[in-house]
Write a structure and sequence with these properties.
The structure is a single chain. It contains 18 helices and no strands. The protein has 435 residues and is an all-alpha fold. The chain has two domains: 199 residues, MFS general substrate transporter like domains (Growth Hormone, Chain: A); 229 residues, Up-down Bundle (Growth Hormone, Chain: A). It is globular. It is found in: Cell inner membrane. This is MFS transporter.
Amino acid sequence: MSLTRAFADVRPLRTPAFRRLLIGRTVSLLGGFMSVVTVLYQVWDMTHSSVWSGAVGLAQALPLVGVGLFAGAWVDRGDRRRIFLASTVGQAVCAALLAVQGFTGHAPVGVVLALVAVHASFGAFGAPAAGVFVPRLLPKDQVAAGLALNMVAGQLTMLAGPALAGLLLGWFGIGVCYLLDALSFLLAFWGAWGLPPLPPEGEQSRPGLHGVLDGLRFLTGHRVVRGALLTDLAATVLAMPISLFPLVNAERFGDEPRTLGLFLSALAVGGVAATALSGPLTRLARPGPVMLCASATWGAALALFGVTTSAWAGLAVLMVAGAADAVAVVSRSTIVQTRTPDALLGRVTAAEQIVGQAGPHLGNLRGGLVAGWSSGATALITGGLLCVLAVGSVGATTPELRRTADEPGGEEPARPVGPPGEQDPAAARSAPTEA
């Protein structure tokens, strides 16, 4: 294998539309991570309350969960490009209003959190709309590579955004950080402006709750997509380590703040390295086995971190965990976006976003409860081992997840979108559902 093939597959960058989207997405994500730190800083500075600081996370997560599935159904009824552009404008306006209150004097904390929640609600529409861009713009054999490039950009902005926010907060204050976030949406808007119309291919979503239920029916009936989301839930709910880092740092590493910061950075460094060297994995036609192996490695690495007594060994293990997590995310997204009919992709992407939001929050809660009954190390070890067992169970009970589409038994028959008796038979026969 040549050295160039070891690095991330950059063929998607030859597609101008994808290249513009990636640039816009990267700048927007950088502004988003800066804004997250700025909101936390402002709310803490105003209240000095951990309860209010925790409410920031709820203001960001609850709209994604509450609005997500209905947003996905709406996205599957219209032009995804227009919906994404409208969502981008809405998020920019919210960021601009946050900047105004930052320059003119702090608004009440409730107003700040309300703006954060509205911002997240617009994002709940934008995310499922953007979920169709990669599979619609790139050839199928480049979808995984495009998702990996998105992941590289996301990991790099996750490293750089908070650090840059810390510097700018010290130099210029919160107003400038919010303003830069608002301006970053201009590039996101530019990235999507030149796209062609992207209406659903096939039968449109039914309105309201019926459309949501159709999406849930697909998720529960399609074994491969269901297995991919269950694997992600197993990895996050059972083994999420973030809430345990302060306790483990106090138990084993003298409560040194620099060590605690390095724990978080190690996960991101591992993710960046894995996605930068993702070329061989994204060229494989077997994202299912890759996802299962990576998710099991995530759990095993965190269990191993629970028994380490050396800070350097712990950081190395966390980098392995971060790399495994990044590979699992890219593989899972590849499965979801290539196995889901376009007419359902908004709803399924919304469900994936909800799993991605709710899973880590539940996992951090689980870790904190178990640690309260025992210790941080026990919570890490038991969570990691349970994750390995759960991932193994999903793989054992979902043989379709271990196959490629061209292997015997690798295809799953298309399932109609609506309930029995309400589908167009020709549309049901032609739906490009794969397993």
